[in-house]
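Students often ask why we bother predicting the structure of a whole assembly rather than each chain alone. The short answer is interfaces. A chain on its own may look different once its partners are present, and contacts between molecules only exist in the joint model. In this exercise we take two input lines together and write out one structure for the complete complex. Read the inputs first and try to guess which parts will touch.
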Amino acid sequence: MTSVFETQLFIGKNIRFAAPDPGTDAAVESKWTEDAAYLHAIGIRPAYPLPVNVVKKQHEEDQKEANKNHLFRWAVRLREDDRLIGWAKISNFEWTHHIGVVALGIGMSDDRRKGFGAEALGMLLRYAFDELNLHRLRAVVPGYNDGAQRFFARFGFVEEVRRREALLLNGQRYDDVWMGLLQREWRT
Amino acid sequence: MDLFTGTLVRLAPSHDTQYLRLLDSEPQPQLTEARIRKEDETRGLPDGKGFGFDIRALAEDRLLGFVYLGIINWIDRDAWTAIAIGERDSWGQGFGTDAMRITLRYAFSELHLHRVTLSVFSNNTRAIRSYEKAGFRHEGRIREAMRRDGAFFDILQMGILRAEWQG
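Now the answer. The structure tokens for the assembled complex follow.
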């Protein structure tokens, strides 16, 4: 039987969860925001590139929220060369109801479709359900992001809400989809 | 025709900004919530610009409650609404439905929004019926979103599109 003290929450097979390092991460993340498709994929609209100092400021705000347990955010780094490839977070908590929202992103398109996102989500879910003891999670998926709904569905998320025509992108209306995963569904 | 007057109620300027944080025992500085006592509750509205109105009965100008239209996403032309009729004696008389009609008229004809969103507890049948009458359609159910008195409740999401609004 594995001792509870051997749990490795932050180390995966190819990636690891690290504390954000505003000093060095901000420059990398700022570059990601120059890709409008990346911003759209993670639901940030309107797309707008962020200078390094603004990203740093966001990190400071995030840390304040983290100190109040309002937000848990990790830098996702490759174990091989410690390169920063993305981020993962749990936020928007309602503690009395034990619920939260998960989100993640892989910054550069070359780093996608390699299983890193799936690995990160698996670790995120484990943290949410086994460490934070949350009862349920939400993932928000913009309707124009084709792969995202399938991605979350692989982990057991089901579509719960479809806010019709809630998004307007490139002159076309898309739905905004909320998916949900209960702790007991994840466990089985 | 006055934009803010219905058949039973009118929407009046609200001077009570504290109403937006009412009934919350834990301070949540980044959240602004409008909550109906024992009725429906919008979930975790972030602090944002919005329009809050008192609901006053046309008869005697009696204060009945509060309605809020906010978290306005001008890019997507979508907003959230929340409504409260405070006194139990004032429930079930059409005040909320009338106030919501005025609010939707404001949202669609004045703000030119594309849709309005709300959430409601699954066991709040009176409110659900009222929203259906106002034109809202069901858009989903957040399972076991609330834990109260040892039981779980779902939260229903509803939305109305401009094309579904009968101006």
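Check your guess against this: The domain at 11-187 of chain A is CATH 3.40.630.30 (Aminopeptidase).
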